[in-house]
Amino acid sequence: MKKAALHNLGCKVNGYETEAMQELLVKNGYEIVPFQDTADVYIVNTCTVTNVADRKSRQMLHRARKKNPDAVVVACGCYVQAKQGELDESVDIVIGNNRKKDLIEILKAFEENRQGQIRPEAGRFCDRRVELADINRVREYEELKLESTAEHTRVYVKVQDGCNQFCSYCIIPYARGRVRSRSRDSVTGEVRRLADNGYKEVVLTGIHLSSYGVDTGDSLLGLILAIHEIPGIRRIRLGSLEPGIITEEFAAAIAKLPKICPHFHLSLQSGCDATLKRMNRRYTSGEYYEKCTLLRKYFARPALTTDVIVGFPGETEEEYAKSRAFIDKVDFYETHVFKYSKRTGTRAAMMENQVPEEIKNRRSSDLLALGRRKRGEYEEELIGTVQEVLMEEDILVEGERYQVGHTREYVKVGQKTDENRVNQIVNVEIKNRLQIMH
Fold first, then answer.
1. Separation of alpha carbons 265 and 246, rounded Å
2. Burial 317-335 (b: 16+ CB within 10 A, else e)
3. Residue 117 and residue 35 in contact, taking contact as beta carbons nearer than 8 Å
4. How far lies 270's CA from each of 195, 232, 239, 321, in Å?
5. pLDDT tier at 123 (50, 70, 90 boundaries)?
6. What is the model's pLDDT at position 59?
7. Beta strands at 400-407 and 41-46: parallel, antiparallel or unpaired
8. What is the set of domains in the chain, with CATH numbers?
9. Has this prediction a pTM greater than 0.85?
10. CA-to-CA distance for 80 and 210, rounded, in angstroms?
C-alpha cells in the first residue's frame, strides 16, 4: 500500500480542501501518514496571502523532497496558482485551484508517464506535470466533498469559492478566480451525511462567504435556512462575513434560528475611512459600526471578531490613531492583527509611502495588547453565568481531568469532571477564570 502525507497552509477553505483530498486518497487505497514520516507521495496545499505564507509553502515542499528524494511531491493551491514560475525542481506535480478534485487521476497519469523518464544518476523524473486552469475564466464550482474530518464534533463545510471584490492589497482574487457557489443541494447533502456521522456543529466557510449565491440566484440566508432544518445538526456557525450582508432583514431572520451561534466575524481591516478607501473596502467606519449595532440589537452579547491590517501604504500616525480608537469603540471579543504584506500584482504594491517594518511592528504590538484587554473584559463577564458548551476533548490540567469545548460564542471553556462528555452539549457554570482556556 502506498503512503501519502499531506500538509495544509492557510485558511479554513484550504483546510477543507486538504481533508477532501485526503479522503480521495484513502478511498483509492493510500495509507495516510504524518508529514514528517517517509511517504511515497507528499502533497502541500499552499497559501499566498502573505510573503510569509509564500516562504512557508516553499519550505514545506523542500522538506518533503529532502525527506524522500524518490517520492512524488505535489504542490497545489493558491501559491502555485499565482506563482508557478517560482517553483523549483523539488516539485513533480503542480495542481492549481479548481483541479484538486482530479488529484487521483493526475497521480495515475504521472505514474504511467514516469516509466522510462528516470535520470539514472539522480533517480528523479525528467518532466514536471502541470495542471493549472485559467482561474480567471473558471465559472464552475469545484465539487469536493467530506464525510469526516480530523475533528470529531465540529466540521467546516466549504460552500463557495472565489472573490469579486479586488481589495487593493489582496492577491486572492488572482489565485482563486471569480465567485463560484456550490449548489444548495450539494451542501445540504453533505451536511446530512456529516450529521449522520455524528457531527453536531457545522461552520460554513468560503473565500468570500457573503457572496454565496450571487452567481446562481441563491443566497446565504436561503442556504442557512435549509441547513437549519437538517436533523442532528445542533449548531450553525458562520465563517468570515463582509459588513454589507448584515441588514435588518438578515439579522432579524437568523436571530429567529436557535441553531445559529452568536459569533460573527466581520472583516474590518481599518477603522479609518481614508485607509478604507485606499483599500477599496466599499464601506465606511460608520457603516461598519451600524452593522455591529444591528447584531447587538438582535443577539444578547454576541461575540464580534475581526481582522485588522496595520501599516497599509500611506497609513499615517493620525490614520492609525483613528483606526485604533474605532477598534476600541466597537469592543470586539477578538481582533486578529496582520502587518501589511506587499503582494506583487496588486494596486497597493505600487502605492507610494510604504510603511517601514519597525512602524508596522509597533502598531501591531499596540493593537494586540488592546485586543488582549478586550478579550479579557468579554470573558470576565461570563464568570457566574451558565453557558452551553459543546465538549470536544478530554485533557489533564495540573493532574486534574477536564472536559473542554466551546460556547456558542466560541469561548473555550473547561469543566472539571471524570465523565467522558466529548461530542455532548453540556450546560457549564463558569465559576472562575481558570475555566476559560486559550
1. 11
2. eebbebbbebbeebebbbb
3. no
4. 38, 39, 19, 11
5. very low
6. 96
7. unpaired
8. 3-131 (3.40.50.12160), 154-379 (3.80.30.20), 386-435 (no CATH)
9. yes
10. 26
Question: Confidence class of residue 117 from pLDDT cuts 50, 70 and 90?
Answer: low
**CA 291/CA 225 separation, integer angstroms:** 21
Least confident interval from 165-179, 269-283, 391-405, 420-434:
391-405
Structure confidence by residue, pLDDT tens digits, 31-60 = 999 999 999 999 999 999 999 999 999 999
| Residue 206: half-sphere exposure toward Cβ, Cα within 13 Å | 26
CA distances from 379 to 295, 334, 390, 404, 431 (A): 19, 11, 17, 16, 12
Helices 103-113/12-27 angle, 10° precision: 60
Q: What is the DSSP letter of 85?
A: G
Joined grid coordinates for residue 195: 450529521
Q: How many residues does the chain have?
A: 438
Q: Which set of grid coordinates corresponds to residue 212? A: 454565496
